[in-house]
Amino acid sequence: MPRWPHSLFRWKPRRKRFGTLNPMGTVVSPQLGNTREILVYLPYSYQRSRRRYSVIYMQDGQNLFDPRTSFAGDWGLLDGLTTLPRRTVEPIIVAISNAGEDRLSEYSPFVDAKGLGGQGDRYLDFVLDTVKPAIDQVFRTNAGRSGTGIAGSSMGGLISLYGFFRRPESFGFVASLSPSLWFADRAIFPFVESAPHVPGKVYLDIGTAEGAESLANARRMRALLLAKGYRDGLDFRWMEESGGDHTEAAWGRRFKAALPFLLTP
Predict the structure, then answer these.
(1) Calpha distance 18→91 (Å, rounded)
(2) What is the pLDDT of residues 7-35, one digit of tens each?
(3) What is the C-alpha separation between 245 and 28, in angstroms, rounded?
(4) pTM for the whole structure
(5) What DSSP state is assigned to residue 195?
(6) CB 164 within 8 A of CB 135
(7) Is 221 within 8 Å of 253 (Cβ atoms)?
(8) What whole-number distance in Å separates Cα of residue 249 and Cα of residue 74?
(9) Dihedral class, residue 79 (left if φ above 0, else alpha if ψ from -120 to 50, else beta)
(10) 3-state class of 66 per DSSP?
(11) What b/e sequence results for 191-229 when a residue is b if at least 16 CB atoms lie within 10 Å of its CB, and e otherwise?
Protein backbone atom coordinates (compact mmCIF):
# COMPACT_ATOMS: atom_id res chain seq x y z
CA MET A 1 0.00 0.00 0.00
CA PRO A 2 1.39 3.46 -0.90
CA ARG A 3 2.56 5.62 1.97
CA TRP A 4 2.51 9.38 2.08
CA PRO A 5 5.94 11.02 2.08
CA HIS A 6 7.09 12.25 5.49
CA SER A 7 3.94 10.70 6.99
CA LEU A 8 1.96 13.64 5.63
CA PHE A 9 -1.13 11.50 5.11
CA ARG A 10 -2.34 7.98 5.80
CA TRP A 11 -4.10 6.29 2.90
CA LYS A 12 -7.02 4.12 3.98
CA PRO A 13 -9.11 3.40 0.87
CA ARG A 14 -12.83 2.98 1.27
CA ARG A 15 -14.51 1.09 -1.55
CA LYS A 16 -17.41 2.66 -3.37
CA ARG A 17 -19.53 1.39 -6.19
CA PHE A 18 -17.38 2.39 -9.14
CA GLY A 19 -14.41 4.13 -7.58
CA THR A 20 -12.65 4.72 -4.28
CA LEU A 21 -12.98 7.65 -1.94
CA ASN A 22 -9.84 7.85 0.14
CA PRO A 23 -9.81 9.88 3.37
CA MET A 24 -6.27 11.21 3.71
CA GLY A 25 -6.63 12.47 7.25
CA THR A 26 -5.70 15.84 8.72
CA VAL A 27 -3.11 17.84 6.80
CA VAL A 28 -1.00 20.59 8.34
CA SER A 29 -0.54 23.71 6.23
CA PRO A 30 2.76 25.43 7.04
CA GLN A 31 1.76 28.28 4.73
CA LEU A 32 -1.48 29.05 6.58
CA GLY A 33 -0.73 27.76 10.06
CA ASN A 34 -3.80 25.54 10.23
CA THR A 35 -5.07 22.11 9.23
CA ARG A 36 -7.77 20.63 7.03
CA GLU A 37 -9.12 17.33 5.75
CA ILE A 38 -8.28 15.93 2.32
CA LEU A 39 -10.21 13.35 0.30
CA VAL A 40 -8.88 11.78 -2.89
CA TYR A 41 -11.29 10.26 -5.39
CA LEU A 42 -9.78 7.57 -7.62
CA PRO A 43 -11.78 6.45 -10.67
CA TYR A 44 -12.83 2.85 -11.04
CA SER A 45 -10.13 2.07 -13.61
CA TYR A 46 -7.28 3.30 -11.42
CA GLN A 47 -6.68 -0.05 -9.70
CA ARG A 48 -7.01 -1.88 -13.01
CA SER A 49 -4.51 0.04 -15.13
CA ARG A 50 -1.04 1.53 -15.03
CA ARG A 51 -1.77 4.77 -16.86
CA ARG A 52 -1.52 8.24 -15.40
CA TYR A 53 -4.49 10.45 -14.62
CA SER A 54 -5.26 14.14 -14.73
CA VAL A 55 -5.85 15.69 -11.32
CA ILE A 56 -8.35 18.37 -10.32
CA TYR A 57 -7.75 20.22 -7.05
CA MET A 58 -11.17 21.26 -5.74
CA GLN A 59 -12.19 23.69 -3.02
CA ASP A 60 -14.87 23.17 -0.33
CA GLY A 61 -14.03 19.48 -0.38
CA GLN A 62 -16.49 18.54 2.34
CA ASN A 63 -19.35 19.55 0.03
CA LEU A 64 -18.48 17.35 -2.95
CA PHE A 65 -19.20 13.74 -2.01
CA ASP A 66 -21.17 13.38 1.21
CA PRO A 67 -24.35 15.22 2.28
CA ARG A 68 -23.50 14.48 5.92
CA THR A 69 -20.41 16.72 5.79
CA SER A 70 -21.66 19.36 3.37
CA PHE A 71 -23.05 22.80 4.08
CA ALA A 72 -26.36 22.33 2.24
CA GLY A 73 -26.42 19.10 0.27
CA ASP A 74 -23.48 17.77 -1.70
CA TRP A 75 -22.45 17.93 -5.36
CA GLY A 76 -23.30 14.27 -5.86
CA LEU A 77 -19.94 13.56 -7.47
CA LEU A 78 -19.60 10.03 -6.15
CA ASP A 79 -22.49 8.91 -8.32
CA GLY A 80 -22.07 11.55 -11.01
CA LEU A 81 -18.51 10.62 -11.88
CA THR A 82 -19.45 7.01 -12.58
CA THR A 83 -21.40 8.02 -15.69
CA LEU A 84 -18.52 9.81 -17.38
CA PRO A 85 -16.97 8.27 -20.51
CA ARG A 86 -14.34 5.78 -19.41
CA ARG A 87 -10.65 6.37 -20.18
CA THR A 88 -11.13 9.72 -21.92
CA VAL A 89 -12.68 11.49 -18.90
CA GLU A 90 -11.61 9.94 -15.60
CA PRO A 91 -9.90 12.43 -13.31
CA ILE A 92 -8.41 12.00 -9.89
CA ILE A 93 -10.12 14.57 -7.68
CA VAL A 94 -8.35 16.03 -4.67
CA ALA A 95 -11.07 17.48 -2.42
CA ILE A 96 -9.59 20.04 -0.03
CA SER A 97 -11.93 21.03 2.79
CA ASN A 98 -12.36 24.70 3.56
CA ALA A 99 -11.09 26.27 6.77
CA GLY A 100 -14.45 27.20 8.23
CA GLU A 101 -14.34 30.76 9.55
CA ASP A 102 -11.15 31.41 7.58
CA ARG A 103 -12.72 30.29 4.28
CA LEU A 104 -13.38 33.82 3.03
CA SER A 105 -9.83 34.94 3.79
CA GLU A 106 -8.21 31.93 2.14
CA TYR A 107 -10.34 31.99 -0.98
CA SER A 108 -9.44 35.56 -1.94
CA PRO A 109 -6.07 37.25 -2.42
CA PHE A 110 -7.88 40.58 -2.30
CA VAL A 111 -8.81 42.36 0.94
CA ASP A 112 -12.28 43.88 1.11
CA ALA A 113 -13.48 46.94 3.03
CA LYS A 114 -14.11 44.80 6.13
CA GLY A 115 -10.56 43.45 6.15
CA LEU A 116 -11.60 40.02 4.90
CA GLY A 117 -9.60 38.12 2.30
CA GLY A 118 -5.92 38.44 1.58
CA GLN A 119 -4.74 34.85 2.14
CA GLY A 120 -5.36 33.56 -1.38
CA ASP A 121 -1.72 33.41 -2.42
CA ARG A 122 -0.78 31.47 0.71
CA TYR A 123 -3.65 29.11 0.08
CA LEU A 124 -2.43 28.43 -3.48
CA ASP A 125 1.07 27.85 -2.09
CA PHE A 126 -0.45 25.26 0.25
CA VAL A 127 -2.19 23.49 -2.64
CA LEU A 128 0.80 23.51 -4.96
CA ASP A 129 3.76 23.25 -2.59
CA THR A 130 2.36 20.94 0.12
CA VAL A 131 -0.59 18.95 -1.23
CA LYS A 132 0.35 18.49 -4.90
CA PRO A 133 3.86 17.06 -4.35
CA ALA A 134 2.42 14.43 -2.00
CA ILE A 135 -0.35 13.53 -4.43
CA ASP A 136 2.11 13.21 -7.31
CA GLN A 137 4.43 11.00 -5.27
CA VAL A 138 1.78 8.56 -4.08
CA PHE A 139 -0.59 8.34 -7.04
CA ARG A 140 -0.09 7.86 -10.77
CA THR A 141 -0.76 11.41 -11.88
CA ASN A 142 -0.15 13.36 -15.03
CA ALA A 143 1.83 15.84 -12.97
CA GLY A 144 2.49 18.46 -15.66
CA ARG A 145 0.35 21.55 -16.04
CA SER A 146 -1.67 20.01 -18.90
CA GLY A 147 -2.87 17.34 -16.47
CA THR A 148 -3.42 19.64 -13.49
CA GLY A 149 -6.59 21.65 -12.95
CA ILE A 150 -8.30 23.66 -10.26
CA ALA A 151 -12.03 24.03 -9.65
CA GLY A 152 -14.52 25.46 -7.22
CA SER A 153 -17.77 27.34 -6.76
CA SER A 154 -18.73 30.68 -5.25
CA MET A 155 -15.65 31.90 -3.30
CA GLY A 156 -14.01 28.62 -4.33
CA GLY A 157 -14.69 29.62 -7.92
CA LEU A 158 -13.03 32.98 -7.30
CA ILE A 159 -9.79 31.48 -5.97
CA SER A 160 -9.79 28.88 -8.74
CA LEU A 161 -10.04 31.50 -11.48
CA TYR A 162 -7.42 33.62 -9.74
CA GLY A 163 -5.13 30.61 -9.33
CA PHE A 164 -5.24 29.78 -13.04
CA PHE A 165 -3.83 33.22 -13.88
CA ARG A 166 -1.65 33.61 -10.77
CA ARG A 167 0.14 30.26 -11.13
CA PRO A 168 0.15 29.62 -14.90
CA GLU A 169 3.14 27.28 -14.62
CA SER A 170 1.04 24.87 -12.56
CA PHE A 171 -2.55 24.85 -13.83
CA GLY A 172 -3.56 23.90 -17.35
CA PHE A 173 -7.31 24.19 -16.88
CA VAL A 174 -9.86 25.73 -14.53
CA ALA A 175 -13.56 25.40 -13.72
CA SER A 176 -15.03 28.47 -12.04
CA LEU A 177 -18.66 27.83 -11.12
CA SER A 178 -20.83 30.74 -9.97
CA PRO A 179 -17.69 32.63 -8.87
CA SER A 180 -17.97 35.40 -6.26
CA LEU A 181 -16.70 38.04 -8.67
CA TRP A 182 -18.20 40.77 -6.50
CA PHE A 183 -15.76 40.24 -3.65
CA ALA A 184 -13.45 43.16 -2.69
CA ASP A 185 -15.18 45.56 -5.07
CA ARG A 186 -14.70 43.22 -8.07
CA ALA A 187 -10.91 43.25 -7.75
CA ILE A 188 -10.65 40.09 -9.85
CA PHE A 189 -11.52 42.04 -13.03
CA PRO A 190 -8.46 44.34 -13.20
CA PHE A 191 -6.30 41.40 -12.14
CA VAL A 192 -7.48 39.17 -14.99
CA GLU A 193 -7.40 42.05 -17.45
CA SER A 194 -3.75 42.81 -16.68
CA ALA A 195 -2.62 39.16 -16.49
CA PRO A 196 -0.93 37.58 -19.51
CA HIS A 197 -2.95 35.18 -21.61
CA VAL A 198 -2.52 31.71 -20.08
CA PRO A 199 -2.73 28.76 -22.48
CA GLY A 200 -5.24 26.17 -21.32
CA LYS A 201 -8.95 25.63 -20.90
CA VAL A 202 -11.33 27.86 -18.97
CA TYR A 203 -14.85 26.89 -17.93
CA LEU A 204 -17.09 29.61 -16.46
CA ASP A 205 -20.75 29.39 -15.52
CA ILE A 206 -23.65 31.04 -13.73
CA GLY A 207 -27.31 30.30 -13.09
CA THR A 208 -29.94 32.83 -14.09
CA ALA A 209 -31.64 32.46 -10.68
CA GLU A 210 -28.54 33.62 -8.79
CA GLY A 211 -29.49 37.29 -8.98
CA ALA A 212 -29.07 40.15 -11.45
CA GLU A 213 -25.72 41.30 -10.02
CA SER A 214 -24.12 37.85 -10.12
CA LEU A 215 -25.40 37.30 -13.65
CA ALA A 216 -24.06 40.66 -14.82
CA ASN A 217 -20.66 40.02 -13.21
CA ALA A 218 -20.35 36.60 -14.83
CA ARG A 219 -21.31 37.97 -18.24
CA ARG A 220 -18.73 40.72 -17.80
CA MET A 221 -16.05 38.13 -17.01
CA ARG A 222 -17.07 36.12 -20.05
CA ALA A 223 -16.63 39.21 -22.24
CA LEU A 224 -13.23 39.91 -20.65
CA LEU A 225 -11.98 36.36 -21.26
CA LEU A 226 -13.11 36.46 -24.87
CA ALA A 227 -11.34 39.79 -25.29
CA LYS A 228 -8.15 38.20 -23.92
CA GLY A 229 -8.23 35.71 -26.77
CA TYR A 230 -10.02 32.68 -25.32
CA ARG A 231 -12.13 31.07 -28.02
CA ASP A 232 -15.67 30.05 -27.22
CA GLY A 233 -16.08 26.31 -27.75
CA LEU A 234 -12.34 25.70 -28.17
CA ASP A 235 -10.40 26.72 -25.07
CA PHE A 236 -13.29 28.50 -23.36
CA ARG A 237 -16.69 27.15 -22.34
CA TRP A 238 -19.48 29.35 -21.03
CA MET A 239 -22.61 27.97 -19.38
CA GLU A 240 -25.54 30.15 -18.42
CA GLU A 241 -28.07 27.77 -16.93
CA SER A 242 -31.66 28.91 -17.20
CA GLY A 243 -33.16 28.72 -13.72
CA GLY A 244 -29.88 27.55 -12.21
CA ASP A 245 -29.37 28.56 -8.59
CA HIS A 246 -26.49 28.97 -6.14
CA THR A 247 -26.54 25.43 -4.74
CA GLU A 248 -24.32 22.39 -4.43
CA ALA A 249 -26.70 20.33 -6.58
CA ALA A 250 -26.54 22.86 -9.42
CA TRP A 251 -22.74 22.97 -9.29
CA GLY A 252 -22.44 19.20 -9.27
CA ARG A 253 -24.72 18.93 -12.29
CA ARG A 254 -22.84 21.56 -14.30
CA PHE A 255 -19.38 20.37 -13.24
CA LYS A 256 -20.06 16.87 -14.46
CA ALA A 257 -21.18 18.27 -17.83
CA ALA A 258 -18.01 20.42 -18.04
CA LEU A 259 -15.51 17.60 -17.48
CA PRO A 260 -15.41 16.27 -21.07
CA PHE A 261 -14.53 19.78 -22.29
CA LEU A 262 -11.84 20.26 -19.62
CA LEU A 263 -10.19 16.85 -19.93
CA THR A 264 -10.42 16.02 -23.62
CA PRO A 265 -7.32 17.18 -25.55
Answers:
(1) 13
(2) 455 444 444 446 788 998 899 999 999 99
(3) 34
(4) 0.93
(5) S
(6) no
(7) no
(8) 6
(9) alpha
(10) coil
(11) ebeeeeebebbbbbbbbeebeeebeebbeebbeebeebe
